[in-house]
Fold this protein.
Amino acid sequence: MFLIQGKYKLIAVVTVVVLCALGSWLIWGRGKHKQDIQPPVHLESQAPTGAITPDPQPNQSKSANQSAIPPQLTPPVTRPTPPTAIAGPKLSVGEYYQQAMEYKNQGRYTDAVNSYKLAIEASPNETMFYQEKAKLEFMMTKKDEAIKTCQDGLKINPNDQMLQNQLNIYQASR
């Protein structure tokens, strides 16, 4: 963004601020109160991974007044369910977006791309999802898919300058 000069720098800064605000709005459930937001759906059949189990205790003689105290276990680590294995009702657009961001932060880029696909299916007119999906595809060196994603987004909104800039960069890097 530092390479942008003049009036275009202001436009770029305003665009980034607007996208951040929109992303926050989508992540936090479009103004829903915290008590109205449903927790993420997890498959019951998945065994928790990362749970710490206690070391087995050697048999010790206990007097009659000593009671056996069960060892403390840490709660299982919860992980978002993959987008292909969602149990129950479909997620909202904001929940797909949040899920994609979690996957991206975990380095699970393929799952993040799949979540963005589901977000695009749920809200096809939101070009931000096309932008984010294309970024991940490009990062995964799937340049042709990234270009197609940008082109699909531009069919929805041909005036989206951010998406057009992404497309130009991706085409130039071929």
Observations:
- DSSP finds six helices and no strands in the chain.
- The first helix runs from residue 7 to 27.
